[in-house]
Amino acid sequence: MKKIIALAGIIAFTGCTNRDRFDTYEPDWKSLGNHEAAPEWFRDAKLGIYFHWGVYSVPAFGSEWYPRNMHLKESREYAHHLENYGHPSEFGYHDFVPLFKAEHFDAGEWADLFVKAGAKFAGLVAEHHDGFSMWDSDVTPWNAAAMGPKRDVTGELADAFRDRGLKLITTFHHARNLQRADSLNHNNWKSHYPFFKGMPPTSEDEQLRYLYGNIPEDQWIEEVWLAKLKEVVDNYKPDIVWFDSWLDEIPESYRKEFSAYYLNQAQKWKKEVVIVRKQDDLPLTYTVDDLEKSRKNELDEHPWMTDEAISKGSWCYTDNLQIKSTRDVLHVLIDIVSKNGVLLLNISPMADGTIPGNQRNVLLGLGKWLDKYGEAIYGSRPWYTYGEGPTKEPEGHFENHAEFLKVKYSWRDVRYTKRGNNIYCMVMGWPETAEFTFKAFSEKLLPEDINIKKVTLLGSDQKLEWKNMGEGLKVVLPDQAPDAMANVFKVNIR
């Protein structure tokens, strides 16, 4: 462990002091603000897939917050743990690590599935709040190459993704891992692990402290939080680094230091990279805003991202996990893209590395639709309006995620995108009328005159009758819908 600590210190120290004189970015907000937050490849991609998969997948109960909740006597997880594993003081979270074997994990097979699903980038929760790193690490002994699967999960995935043309995203949630309690039995919400006497998170064992974050704050920030980030950047060259909440608990100087380090490394790789943040902890001058399980209800001039789960509850696999329909996931994607957003879709593999069939079916169904109609999605940009129809998303973000889950679109809801000389009108279903009017083409609403050359229905060979009238573009519908989930009318303009 002393060797690990020393090496981690060297990694952090050299990153802070031996900066290349030719580095483009300095660790200050003004210099960092020169970085293009959302390069064209990111804006074109529209869909990425990632996954919450780790030691917390082993109990398959509650959620990925099991490591915390198993210590709280009032929680369902505590009762479940007591019944199935014993008292947390005797069977701690670290005892799940040998059970996380990932024996059926196949990075190539996962990559093939994500390509079929239509993703343009993919990756993993590199580390959740629990302190277990899903890569080959010299910073911490608690990593997937040394324990559990005993495989460099991140490395295998990075190679498989890039072999198939996918860019790599790594997400970091470890800002919450530090033990911030100031006394025994003080349940500090900003600490993932409760600090209860006699429980493993309070242990002075040198190795256990690296899992439970029970390390002096100054040392932890330098030798753990920052060192882990630099290690992943250097070893795997991610195209996107995404941060979860609680990043505001990290001193501003370190947030600047990492940002400059990553962006300067990317310059040396000759890669355009993206930093995504979830709350007001990094300036939007050089980062992309993320909304958890929610989305904007208006068109935004700046590209943004939603991280959304394929499930209706937990982010990680649980034995009673409910999965959304392909239709619902597709409609969310269409809505996000129409408003200048990108969808980061989370799936939930089992601890053994199996992706359950119901999740696979949703991904494959999504991919089949994108194979047919993806020209309305990939490489598109917003039109002057995102759409029309009676369905409106709630205000707010994650605090209203339960309300977002209730949103259901119908054939009365239309979303628009634009690509070249084509405007795509995506109808969330099939109209129950003989004619349909796209109101966004109304003379009163259009910001400028357009000359429509042709209107077609993707997936249909039938010639459409249409007329551009004062109240909008009126189209006579064919007898049969090309698709049951969403249909795309392509309007070619001069």
Considering the chains and any ligands shown, give keywords for the structure:
13 helices, TIM Barrel, 494 residues, five-stranded antiparallel beta sheet, eight-stranded parallel beta barrel, alpha/beta, Immunoglobulin-like, 2 domains, disordered N terminus
> What's the assembly state of these chains?
single chain
Major sheet: order of its strands? 1-2-3-4-5-6-7-8
Which ranges are low-confidence, i.e. pLDDT below 50, for 5 or more consecutive residues?
Answer: 1-19
Gap between N and C termini? 68 Å
**Strand segment count:** 16
- Backbone CA Rg: 24 Å
Classified in CATH, the superfamily of the largest domain is Glycosidases
Gross morphology is: globular
How much beta, percentage-wise? 15-25%
Domain module count: 2
**Helix share bin:** 25-40%
Secondary structure category = alpha/beta
Q: Mind summarizing the main beta sheet?
A: 8 strands, parallel, barrel
* The CATH C-level class name of the largest domain: Alpha Beta
Give the helices and strands as they follow along the chain.
HHHEHHHEHEHHEHEEEHEHEHEEEEEEE
CATH architecture of the largest domain: Alpha-Beta Barrel
Tell me the CATH topology of the largest domain. TIM Barrel
Mean pLDDT: 94
Count of separate DSSP helical elements: 13
Task: Characterise this structure.
With 494 residues, this protein is α/β, with parallel strands linked by helices. It folds into two domains: 2-376, Glycosidases (TIM Barrel), CATH 3.20.20.80; 388-493, Immunoglobulin-like (Sandwich), CATH 2.60.40.1180. The protein is built from 13 helices and 16 strands. It has helices at 2-17, 29-32, 40-45, 66-69, 76-84, 107-116, 153-163, 208-212, 217-236, 252-269, 326-338, 357-373, 401-406, and strands at residues 47-51, 121-127, 167-172, 240-243, 274-277, 288-292, 304-309, 341-347, 387-388, 414-419, 422-427, 435-438, 452-457, 465-469, 472-476, 487-493. Strand 10 and strand 11 (422-427) form a beta hairpin. Helix 6 (107-116) packs across helix 7 (153-163), helix 6 (107-116) packs across helix 12 and helix 9 (217-236) runs parallel beside helix 10.
